[in-house]
């Protein structure tokens, strides 16, 4: 079966973006086109998948067609992929599958979200639409609340504590401070992060990712056309995805995300790699507790030891077992929902090609993992990528 | 027990064989007033639930205007009387001008006791919460909250109000599934006990509360939500009641009572909320 590589990747800066949907997408697409080493024309694109929640609803239907119209991809078969915050993780997987199936050779996967042009009231509505509406929302929960429930239970079951979460926040802010595309490019002290405004007890402001605008775009190619575009492709070694019950109360445990565990198991199996082989991972840290649990669910730490992993700095850039969120993660780089999954791919594409500046380059990076979660874990896509094809 | 007084689901209660009197514990200027998430419907449900706990023969109640009949039936499983059934119905539900409800056997003469417990409300808080509910209930008030349509709300109404679940072999499931794991439609329902233990909890700040609660959350100082291991096995998430202390800890026992949750499109959404026992 055909192998698939990433041959180009780009994104906008995340944050309060002055551009609207069309402008942001065009910027990300152009950045991806220009990142291709060899000759590339958008006319070579066979298919496109764009992840977005269409936050705010300004172009809820046919979003993707509007975006391709404004990015030199007129006529390309395109669709919007929606799986909450995992939308573009799944768009990336769909693009990979399109090439694997033999129906396409060059495919674009991307994502976009414009979140900061709404009133606070409308924003809060859209931030809650991906959780379980009928039961959790009527119990007063949005995502800070659901992740707070997970955090408190994890503390109870495994003696982890809020300081462990603070270590994650401090680490990701330190990484993000070196990333010119990050939403929050600012280091945060342990004391400041520990004493943040309480959003959903026990989670403070410094445990929560910001609300970001942004777009990201990557170009995938089949093995038999890769050399047209680059001599240094990043190969997709494994793709895994899974789903779980939408509401927390329908799951056997709230201290792990089964969808993450299942998706990563499939991606590892396909790649022939294990967690120990991974040099860097872009992990879905919408809340610090999400990163703590992900380090366990992805196999970087034993179950229940995510707190110790964080406390011991085992995810710090070039210091730990595996660099976790060299980009700053959702916490610092930002979280434009639909753009996040392919934004993670943009980071590992550049890391694996040794193109990252400002002291943020992961040394000798050969393999990487991306982990993109929808909502509180109802959907998850995990990808293992590497410089080597096998 | 043929008669007595008690605290029941957060309300004051007196009863004998012919009546059930239920009142809010809160007062203002000598009158009984509702707590922050109660009304005549929640009192009426609590009254009948108490009677049903020792007398399962009540199968029909004639409701006073001001009590939400469909919600009452969803929560208790007891039909409200209509024109055809009124004459055969043996129980009437009466409401007072204040926060009082009486369930009384028809054609009996009763003398209601005076319940002494009086918790004087903070007038400013009470007035603000009352105004917030009034505003929330206006047709013109368009909530930016989660949209749970009437159809969707009613579909889950019995599960929401009476903890109606399903038995799939050994497995007790709540909330109910449309299809079982083997693909069959399962209609058999079983009511779970409204009791649970706190497995986790959070308190959302007013700023972080969902927008459908935006009028009341600032007055309440945020919203407390618990994740419960229900006594019968399944798990669930519930808001705690608004008018009692909610300093929750893991392992604490909680009972579930019917209260108001929020209003949308002029309709109050009721549901189960937790109170520490």
Structural description of this entry:
The complex is a heterodimer of chains A (390) and B (277). Chain A has 390 residues and is an alpha/beta fold. Chain A has helices spanning 21-35, 63-69, 87-100, 120-127, 143-158, 162-176, 190-194, 223-229, 258-271, 288-297, 306-311, 329-332, 340-352, and strands at 4-11, 47-51, 78-81, 106-113, 198-200, 203-204, 214-222, 234-243, 280-282, 323-324, 367-374, 379-386. In chain A, the strands form 2 sheets. Chain A has a 10-stranded mixed sheet, sandwiched between helices. In chain A, strands 5-6 form a two-stranded antiparallel ribbon. In chain A, α3 (87-100) packs across α13 and α6 crosses α10 (288-297). The longest helix of chain A has 16 residues, at 143-158. Chain A is globular, with a radius of gyration of 19 Å. Chain B starts with a strand and ends with a strand. Chain B has 277 residues and is α+β, with helices and mostly antiparallel strands. Chain B has helices spanning 40-52, 69-76, 123-137, 150-155, 157-162, 217-220; strands spanning 4-8, 11-15, 19-23, 26-28, 31-32, 60-63, 79-80, 91-95, 100-105, 119-120, 164-168, 171-173, 190-191, 195-204, 223-230, 235-239, 253-264, 267-276. In chain B, the strands form 4 sheets. A 7-stranded mixed sheet of chain B has the order 1-2-3-9-8-6-7, with helices on one face. At the A-B interface, α4, α5 and β5 of A face β14, β15 and β16 of B.
